[in-house]
Design a protein that fits this description.
It is a single chain. This protein has about 300 residues and is an alpha+beta fold. Among the domains are: about 60 residues; about 70 residues, Nuclear Transport Factor 2, Chain: A; about 70 residues, Roll (Nuclear Transport Factor 2, Chain: A). The strands form two sheets. The chain has an eight-stranded antiparallel β-sheet with strand order 1-2-3-4-8-7-6-5, covered by helices on one side. The radius of gyration is 42 Å and the shape is globular.
Length: about 300
């Protein structure tokens, strides 16, 4: 039989294993000191910043169409004409549709650098005019001269309605005058309507028109006997089941249902306005019904 050859481990392999064991032991010792648990120090000045992307590079959504923007050449011409007549420097304006709580019609508005004009969509007639570049530094014109200027502006408007009364007031602090052409409801009772009227604001220095608004809320027919002042006060207490602590006052007036919250009713009517206990009540001057009320400012 052949004798087995002795299997010996090569010397080189033994030296390699010894070196590996030594390295592992050194690493365990280093780990025991906790040095390997420390987080590395970050150099923030070496961190590369994120690149900013210009907005123009990003995908863009289609801009939403402005639903209020509307252009009508004929109405724009009408607005420009009113603007030029009343001294507004007409530039290329921005047109749109708008509404006003005291107007039943939709309105076409053109805004200029120095003011704006609103005309009625159905007729192209003026509803509102305003101008900002008017001098109001002092009072140079008399009240009579200001009313005369307002009459000139009214004649230009060529309105079909008749306005038999002229209310006027000069604000001596702000140097402008308010002139209102009103429909006469009852001359004897001095009852005039602010809801079938043309209201103007004029510079007391130059007489130029600052603003103009044309109200057209027609008076409805009210049947029966007109109740008295005392009956109007009694009607409030009876129908509202209250007793006034303060002495009530009642004044005959023309009002629109809009003022007591009926915002879809573009008319006007004769009412008693009864004030008491910091409240204002609107009473139908014929039926005695309480139409609405609101708290008065203290």
């Amino acid at each position: 039989m052949k004798q087995k050859k002795n299997e010996t481990i090569p010397v080189g392999l033994l030296i390699g294993l010894l070196f590996l064991c030594t390295a592992v032991a050194g690493g365990l010792a280093f780990l025991a000191k906790g040095d390997l648990l420390k987080l590395p120090t970050i150099r923030f000045d070496m961190v590369k910043e994120e690149q900013e992307i210009e907005p123009s590079i990003l995908p863009q959504e289609e801009p939403a169409e402005d639903e209020s923007t509307y252009v009508d050449e004929e109405l724009t011409k009408a607005a420009n004409t009113y603007g030029e007549i009343f001294g507004l420097l007409v530039t290329e304006g921005t047109s749109s549709l708008t509404e006003d709580k005291y107007c039943a019609d939709e309105l076409y508005r053109v805004e200029y650098d120095g003011g704006e004009v609103q005309v009625r969509m159905d007729t192209g007639k003026l509803y509102w005019f305003s101008r900002g570049n008017v001098k109001c530094n002092e009072i140079r014109l008399t009240e009579r001269q200001l009313v005369s200027k307002a009459k000139e502006y009214l004649a230009i408007l060529q309105l079909d309605e008749e306005y038999g009364n002229i209310a006027r007031k000069v604000d001596r602090d702000k140097n402008f005058a308010t002139v209102i052409f009103q429909r006469v409801i009852d001359e004897k009772l001095e009852l005039y309507s602010d809801y079938e009227a043309v209201k103007m604001l004029l510079s007391a220095q130059t007489g130029e028109l600052i603003s103009c608004k044309i109200f057209d809320l027609p008076l409805v027919e009210q049947e029966g006997r007109k109740i008295t002042q005392s009956e109007a006060i009694a009607s409030v207490q009876d129908k509202m089941s209250i007793n006034f602590e303060q002495q009530a006052k009642a004044t005959l007036a023309v009002c629109s249902p809009i003022v007591w919250g009926d915002e879809a009713n573009f008319t006007s009517r004769i009412v008693w306005t009864v004030t008491a206990d910091n409240m204002l009540y609107y009473i139908d001057a014929y039926s005695g019904d309480v139409l609405g009320s609101r708290a008065l400012e203290a």
